[in-house]
Amino acid sequence: MATEVNDSNFDELVLKSKKPVMIDFWAEWCGPCRMVAPIIDEISKEYSSKALVLKCDVDSNPTVTARYGIRNIPTILYFKGGEIADKQVGSAQKSIYTAKLNALL
Fold first, then answer.
1. Domain residue ranges in the chain
2. What is the CATH number of domain 3-102?
3. What pTM, to 2 d.p., does this model score?
């Protein structure tokens, strides 16, 4: 299960992480987000030793959502060294998500 990140712990978990970070920006009411959720959880388990896979509820975390200009969900942001390294907007196949994450390892 992917760990939840929020407005208060975002900087600590994401920007200070020594590992690459993948964040799924989602909302409970979003159909495509619910379809992607099991894929994100699988990736979280598979990459637990190599990367940090997180989820951020856009409705509960307006500060982070606004900071990164999240307007469409699901949006997946990939961070390395505290900087955005890649992005995927909209639902995609697992291979798309993992290819972007592998590029950061």
1. 3-102
2. 3.40.30.10
3. 0.96
Residues 6+ apart with CB under 8 A from 77: 22, 23, 25, 68, 84, 86, 87
Residues 6+ apart with CB under 8 A from 44: 1, 2, 3, 53
DSSP string covering 14-43: IIT-SS-EEEEEE-TT-HHHHHHHHHHHHH
- Among residues 7, 67, 42, 32, the alpha carbon closest in space to that of 22 is found at 42
Q: HSE (CB half, 13 Å, CA atoms) of 69?
A: 3
To the nearest 10°, report the CA torsion of 73, 78, 81, 84. -60
Cite the active site residues: 30, 33
Which amino acid type is present at position 22?
M
Q: What is the pLDDT along the chain (105 residues), one digit of tens a residue?
A: 889 999 999 999 999 999 999 999 999 999 999 999 999 999 999 999 999 999 999 999 999 999 999 999 999 999 999 999 999 999 999 999 999 999 999
